[in-house]
Design brief:
Blueprint: H1 18-28, H2 37-41, H3 51-62, H4 79-99, H5 106-115, H6 122-131, H7 134-148, H8 153-156, H9 164-177, H10 187-197, H11 213-227, H12 232-260, H13 264-295, H14 300-326
């Protein structure tokens, strides 16, 4: 890592294990995937929740988004890379299937989200509000940046795979996510404004080397569901879970950011989601899920799985963050420089913190 810090690091600068190192090398230098890399990627030595798998999988998925600097666009459908990706996906899916209760109904999965504090990262916003630590707000923004700087893009893959009521309602929500025709209101742009307000670099994937597996996994889940038609119902379940939990969770983040002394652009991102997603939650459950089940009731277990997997990974991320902060550590792989105007102690200044 260069002295400039993680914001200046290239995507290939710091692989996280044998698989991601071999993958980064072949991508960076335009080589074929090494023989046997797919077998290694799906082997028992690779932790399905770990940095090696999720960093490698994230890099492969980026070929379907904006690409990687220095990597030819032709690699997106490279057969060798697709075999590696499939092996990583199967390893990840096997762990999810083992950890997620199944089969479940939509009511069983979504019911608790409607009757209890729905944002599974609510403890994070509570911690931020309690301490007034702007450094924590900045870390949380970095952790969320791999998704929010491409917000709504992974879900857009569901559109050609839906029809009728489900499709019409889904597109209506996505239209809002993409700014309702106004570039300055695109949610990814609003999150970039949030990052800049917090003194961060809003460049796409600029902090990728600092983001741990627990955060990358939440994004990889969306990409996995989106890129496979067989998992379209799970993507709908994920989308519905996000919209259901977003409004109350965003309200808590508004309170937390006010307590941290964040600026108006940072607060605006979450304030926008408080009202918009309260409406979206009704539409997605009644029209998107309702329409999809009306057409194909057999998809219900997959919708529920998408919701349950989302809750599981959000819980894992919240636990990662709160454990790090409670022990006076950064939740990132590389702590951020402390801005001069930050309010509240940094991890280095606060050796231990209580929940």
């Amino acid at each position: 890592m260069s002295a400039a810090g993680p914001a200046e690091a290239a995507w290939y600068a710091e692989p996280r294990g044998e698989v991601s190192a071999a993958l980064a090398d072949c991508l960076r230098h335009g080589r074929e995937a090494p023989p046997g890399l797919d077998r290694a990627a799906g082997g028992p030595a690779v932790d399905p929740w770990g940095d090696d798998l999720h960093f490698a999988l994230y890099l492969l998925y980026e070929l379907h988004y904006r690409g990687l600097d220095g990597v030819s666009d032709d690699r997106e459908w490279d057969p060798g890379l697709l075999r590696v990706r499939a092996a990583l996906e199967q390893r990840f899916l096997a762990a999810l299937r083992e950890a997620v209760p199944s089969p479940r109904t939509v009511e069983e999965s979504f019911g608790p989200l409607l009757t209890t504090p729905a944002d599974r990262s609510g403890g994070v916003s509570g911690r931020m509000a309690e301490t007034g630590g702007l450094w924590q707000a900045r870390e949380y923004a970095v952790l969320r940046s791999p998704y929010h700087l491409k917000e709504a893009d992974p879900h857009a893959w569901a559109i050609p795979r839906l029809t009728g009521r489900a499709k019409a309602a889904f597109v209506a929500i996505e239209y809002d996510e993409f700014g309702a025709g106004r570039a300055e209101a695109v949610h990814a742009r609003l999150f970039a404004d949030l990052m800049e307000d917090l003194g961060l670099d809003a460049g796409y994937n600029r902090y990728l080397p600092a983001v741990p597996a627990a955060a990358l996994a939440t994004v990889n889940l969306m990409s996995l569901f989106g890129l496979h038609r067989a998992w379209r119902a799970a993507l709908v379940g994920h989308f519905a879970c996000v919209e259901t939990t977003s409004s109350p969770g965003s309200a808590r983040m508004v309170d937390a950011l006010n307590a941290c002394g964040a600026g108006p652009a940072a607060i605006r991102f979450y304030a926008e989601h408080v009202t918009a997603d309260a409406v979206h939650e009704q539409i997605v459950r009644r029209e998107v899920i309702g329409g999809l089940l009306e057409e194909d009731p057999a998809l219900e277990p997959r919708i529920a799985f998408g919701c349950d997997a989302t809750v599981l990974l959000e819980d894992r991320l919240a636990d990662h963050i709160l454990t790090a902060w409670a022990n006076g550590r950064s939740a990132l792989r590389h702590p951020l420089p402390q801005p001069v105007a930050a309010r509240g102690p940094s991890p280095e200044e606060e050796p231990s913190c209580a929940h």
